[in-house]
Amino acid sequence: ISPNLVFCHVPGRLSLLSSTSKYKVSVGEVERRLSSPECLNASLLGGVLRRAKSKNGGKSLREKLEKYGLRLPAGRRKAASVTLLTSLVEGEASHLARDFDYVSKTEFPVKRLAQYTKRQHTNDKQALAAKVEASLKLVKEFQDLILCGPPGMSYEWEPGVDKDVFNGLRHFALVTHGFGTPTIVTAINVFHRYLEELLQSQDSKENDGGQMGNGKCSS
Amino acid sequence: ISPNLVFCHVPGRLSLLSSTSKYKVSVGEVERRLSSPECLNASLLGGVLRRAKSKNGGKSLREKLEKYGLRLPAGRRKAASVTLLTSLVEGEASHLARDFDYVSKTEFPVKRLAQYTKRQHTNDKQALAAKVEASLKLVKEFQDLILCGPPGMSYEWEPGVDKDVFNGLRHFALVTHGFGTPTIVTAINVFHRYLEELLQSQDSKENDGGQMGNGKCSS
């Protein structure tokens, strides 16, 4: 059975607007959640998939899983700690990461922080610039490296990527349902933009006050 | 009315275990959500507070708000874009950030990434070390700066913090309900640990494979 086949649809947990559609959960995703490192049991998987609590010990869930070639032993002990991330299906985790990326790009005060830092280094501008250039190189190298694995790339290793790096990133993606790496990327991008602002002229009159509006709500 | 007074309790949206308690929502938080930059309207605020949809155009919500000295004009246009972050109350946003921090500390493959990078720089170890030292300084300066505002600090400015920096961080905290800054800090800490690993001896046999287990689920 193809891992891309849709196992079920799940309503979002974080949707406020009624127009938000459900998230598709693929057979591949269910297989990932049942496997290491999470090893979800029937009760938790049922919760993730928003199924009503069953009175038959997860029998109907197991029956559906079997139809798709998936096994879930009864009485299984879950492996990973349950956190708030556990409840997210990959579709919603990805959506949350995208929204956080959007908000960080538009609302994080990169210019203000950089202007403050530049003022602290008025007497050693060149030393600061040298440190910034060095950091930009390391940041880029780190960014390129973390994009070598899922969820941006396949969950299956392909030649061209260091296996240890891939497996480490794959593990982090599995434990965070795809939320982790894009979120780390978002924050590293914020730091990257801050570094680039540090290289801008001290006299820049621009600031990101504009994004903050006038502090009032319109009627 | 004190902003610390509890306005209501709200069940978590991301809780899987039935033992998870509700989150307290303070009068101060409701006031923040009703003010700029979010300017929530009655419909969205009701959704955030998990109130049943009212048939009276938000009248009961307005009445409760008035009891606590809060005003919500009818027909108000919301200001900020609705994202998946919008639905989180500050208590749950903070809980999610803490869980993400825990998972990033324990499951992100810092050592593997650092070992790969060190192998790429076998011929310029000293140059790499110099770049790392420079980056560590800038990372620390950035970290110290972003911890100058909420949610770690009060939402009210206090002397000792640059006002522009504070207001910028306050804006980001308001738009992300306290989720944003701790999450940026988490990711910057990951990068910081990666940088420190780059300074460790090339011959280190340690790796973070242990955290990944043996790939099997126990019965």
TrEMBL record, chains A, B:
It comes from the Eukaryota. InterPro entries: TF_AP2, TF_AP2_C. The keyword Nucleus applies. One of its GO terms (cellular component) is nucleus. One of its GO terms (molecular function) is DNA-binding transcription factor activity. It is found in: Nucleus. Keywords: DNA-binding, Nucleus, Transcription, Transcription regulation. Residues 7-197 form the Transcription factor AP-2 C-terminal domain. Belongs to the AP-2 family. PANTHER family: TRANSCRIPTION FACTOR AP-2, TRANSCRIPTION FACTOR AP-2, ISOFORM D. This is Transcription factor AP-2 C-terminal domain-containing protein.
